[in-house]
Amino acid sequence: MLLLTLFWRGRELSGPSLFLLRGFFPNWRFYHRPGNQPRLYVRVWKCDGNWTRWEVFVPRAHFRLFDLFHNPINNLLHANQNLIDHLNSDIKELRDDQLVEQLVTYQLTARFAWVRATEIMRGEKFMGCQFEIRLISPMTSPPAETKVLISSVIPFRSEEHTSELQSHLNLVC
Length: 173
Hints:
Distance between the termini: 38 Å
Mean pLDDT: 80
Strand content: 15-25%
Shape: globular
Structural class: alpha+beta
Order of helices and strands: HHEEHHEEEH
Low-confidence stretches: none
Helix content: 25-40%
Largest sheet: 5 strands, antiparallel
Number of helices: 5
Number of strands: 5
């Protein structure tokens, strides 16, 4: 196995079947070299027509001894950040004839941004939300930011869709 990994060193495995399996594995590109970290920012379009300020999603893991055996909340936070990492990678590999809205990772991030917007508003009604992907450079002080993507406005969805997302979030957490 060691010889096989040495042979494949520096090569990236790709293919349609491997692409479908990447949701089960974390994005390991952060081991190559330290660099910019993709972060998700969400803002909400309130009913009075004003926008909230951009809220950053930074998963913070809380550790308890029991988490060594069963850790669904931190696993969910890790999976959410992994989605943002994969979206950033997909944007880099996007062809000229392809729209970013067609990416599965974009659509999943839009749904996740919607859930984050409902958390930001804490039960208040709103007209829509928007998300942004920024690259944060931790090596500079203050950290430098580069905007990668600003989504279009995600309009308000029906009550049943919002309650479906909330019930899913409650089941997971």
